[in-house]
Amino acid sequence: MTGSATILIVDDEERNRRLLDLLLQPEGYTTLMAVDGKAAIAAVAEHSVDLILLDVMMPSMDGYEVAAILKADPASKSIPIIMVTASVDRDTRLSALTAGVEEFLTKPVDRAELWLRVRNLLRLKEYGDFLADYGTVLERQVEERTADLQRFRLAMDSTADAIFLTSRATMKFVEVNATASTMLGYTREELLTLGPRDLRSEARGDPELTFDALVAGDSVNTLHKTVLRRKDGSDFPIELHRHTRQSGDDWIIVSVLRDITEREAAEERLQHLAHHDHLTGLPNRVLFYETLKNALAFAARKKCRVAVMFLDVDHFKDVNDNLGHAAGDKLLTQIGARLVDCVRLRDTVGRLGGDEFGLILTMEDDEQGAVAVADTIRQALREPFYLSGNHVSVTASIGVTMYPADGVRAETLIKYADTAMYGAKQDGRDIFRFFKPQMNTDVRTRLKLEQSLRRAIENEEFVLHYQPKVRLSSGNVVGLEALLRWERPGHGLVPPGQFIPLLEETGLIGKVGTWVIDEACRQIAAWSRTDIGALGIAVNVAGRQFLDRELDEDIATSIQTHGVAPGLLELELTESSLMTNTLRTVETLHRLKAQGVKLSIDDFGTGYSCLAYLRQFPIDKLKIDIAFIRDVTTNPTDAAMTEIIIRMAHSLKMDVIAEGVETAEQLTFLARQGCDQMQGYYFSKPLPVAELEVLLRASTRLIMPLGPDGATLTTVLLVEADLERLSTLVRLLQRDGYRILTAQSATDGLEQLSHHEVQVIVCEAELPFTHDVTFVGHATDLYPDALCIVLSDRMAPRSAAALVRTGALYGFHSIPWDAEALRDNVREAGRHHRRLNADMTPAPAPSLADAVQV
Fold first, then answer.
1. CA distance linking residue 495 with residue 813, whole number of Å
2. How far is Cα 551 from Cα 543, in angstroms, rounded to an integer?
3. pLDDT confidence of 51, banded at 50, 70, 90?
4. Is residue 117 within 8 Å of residue 81, measured between CB atoms?
């Protein structure tokens, strides 16, 4: 009958009716349409309908009412109804089942599911009709109806659900389908010797009473969930639907069973996913909140305390940026595992999102218990994590709040723990802080400050002040450091310590840093067009900005836009940012260096620089951190560290800058150790552009405190017969502030040496003194303390290298020479001479590659 069955489609929307009609056509069904409940009832009364597809939401009469009316009418009671609905919640299903609905279809309707549900219900109806039509005749005419029984058994066997026909009189199965045998592991013959009691997993009420209720009309068409036991003893969940048919003096209970093992497993997985973090498996924010509410209720009954902790991993973004998100995910998983190890079984650890974790600790004692756990966590996190071939150490900022001291509601405690955690971050990270009421005020102030910073970027409220860098050998200003300042409306100039950390935390530092680079390049270009001239500017690059792959492009764009020489822009990078991912750092530094910009390490000595890596970095300058300079004249350790840094930098051909120089004693010490440059309040504080231009135009120089006659200056003697070349040498070296003497002959050169103390001699190699002795040979014999650098257009590089190797020469340069290479060689010679005079331990001479320039 299924192929020629008549199906009534009831839906108030034409497109839904048409869609169902199209889906049913390939199966050969006849369809009728009804636009509402009244039309549906009329259609059932007028036509022979085998199955109804019924929408829930319709005007005037909804699907539940229609189903209840049809099932109450004996003429239409046996027509199966499939409810078509977009809702799958429990209340919808129960309401539909109460109304008498047999099956459900969820919108949007799946074609295959529609066909199967319609086919199966029609087959069940066909078999039920058979039982109703023949009633008591069934038993007397079994042999005559064998063909019909085989046909109906075939219909039963083709359904995916298990079907059991049970006699109320005997409480035994009188018929089962093939699916029932497969589902339970029994043969058909075995099942026909059993009854409902034999399949129950455990005592779940009396089946006879249940069947009596069904016969009486109670619980008809209700959906039940229960557990059955297979032949092998294993249990499994089912969904059970029953209805009754009278057969003579007996009643046949038709039970349709569906194995819902996979569905319940899927629901369980969905339930777990809804309440647990997919990465770590820990409770998520939703479950954490529910667990906290339960913990607070328990604590209220037992009069105990609860500590709520919020933990945020410090600088977690650096791990993602340097090692990739896969490594970051692995780190979070390992952190979660370590946190679980730090608490008791009754405590809760959850991942609240990102790199933030939460803990719920139930305790009998005071806050000292929370202190102990926080210390345990900090110690556990200090142990290195192994990620992608790298050992990574992390720290965390922890906020703690206590029940009932700080609050009694879950929302309040979560808010306070979060606030305390931000307080820990502001206090330096890698610490824990208990909540204090003042923190709420601080957080509001911080949020207001963050909003103002975002407006400051849009409104261009930032400006640059510049602090001069001075070369100690000359006292001249040789460069500037650009320092960010915020002219906040209504507040005046905001100190950088109050807003730069917030720029870094919020990620705004990248956008502001790009502006700083562009503004520095614009200022270089502007001064180059005035009498001030081209002056190099150093800008600080934050760790996040350095790791940004757009930094190269930003620098190139600014240099090109403003038309400045790349060497006038200097990038100052901190040790910590350089040592985060050394392989990537080396690659990035070389890319920046290829653009021609200068590179320096800021705050040197406070990080974790490894000399092996430092040699790989193409760094031009080291800046000694102010922490060493502040007590360099009173603290032997700081003095020794400063001296070591200067010597190490010079051995790597780097200039050294001391920052934060404020006293004459500090300056004197640095000069004696051969420090190249200084900046600090001793010479000038950071100045706005207008004040700085006054200083620069006045040619203000640093006055060294070691003597009035310039004794601290390096004296360089230039001996060159060619007047034009001699003038070129003078112009080249004057920039470095040396005391320069000149001579055009060997005789004049020796006369100058007899009258003045000279540290460095730059001379023509072949300049004759007598017929068999050159000026170089005679001068080095008479004045062995003076370091000699020779220039030649005829001497073979091998011969020059041999002389450098023996120490007879400090350097050699072919004519025409490389100006910058010669300047560097003279500067290094001056440093070498100062080291020799500072102590009698000879310092290493420059390598041949640096001393011999061809």
1. 49
2. 11
3. very high
4. no
Cβ burial, residue 226 (10 Å; 0-12/13-18/19+): middle
Please, is 582 exposed, middle or buried when counting C-beta atoms within 10 Å of its C-beta (0-12, 13-18, 19+)? Answer: middle
DSSP 150: H
Q: CA–CA separation, 624 vs 126, rounded Å?
A: 94
Omega into 705 within 30° of 0, i.e. cis? no
d(CA 401, CA 432): 11
In the chain, helix, strand, coil percent, each to 5? Answer: 45, 20, 30
pLDDT band, very low/low/confident/very high, at 452 (cuts 50, 70, 90): confident
Report how far residue 423's alpha carbon sits from residue 557's, in angstroms, rounded to the nearest whole number: 39
Alpha carbon of residue 300 to chain centroid: 38
**What's the mean pLDDT in 612-632?**
83
Contacts 24+ apart (CB under 8 A), 704-707: 704/472, 704/475, 704/667, 704/671, 705/664, 705/667, 705/668, 706/668, 706/671
End-to-end CA distance of the chain: 103
How do residues 140-155 score in pLDDT, each as one tens digit? 554 555 555 566 667 6
Are 220 and 243 in contact, with CB atoms under 8 Å apart?
yes
Pick from 348, 273, 363, 364: nearest CA to 311: 348
Distance of CA 757 to the CA centre of its chain: 61
pLDDT tens-digit map of 699-746? 888 887 643 334 456 889 999 988 999 999 988 888 777 888 999 988
Alpha carbons 183 and 109: distance in angstroms, whole number: 27
Residue type, 724: E
521 neighbors 561 (Cβ within 8 angstroms): yes
Res 88: pLDDT: 64
Longest CA–CA separation in the chain, Å: 148
SS3 743: strand
Q: Is 4 helix (H, G, I), strand (E, B) or coil?
A: helix
Rounded distance between C-alpha atoms, residue 252 and residue 388, angstroms: 68
Burial-class residue 572 by CB neighbours within 10 Å (0-12, 13-18, 19+). buried
pTM above 0.70, yes or no: no
Can you tell me which residue has the tokens 């009486």? 216
Mean predicted confidence (pLDDT) in 772-801: 81
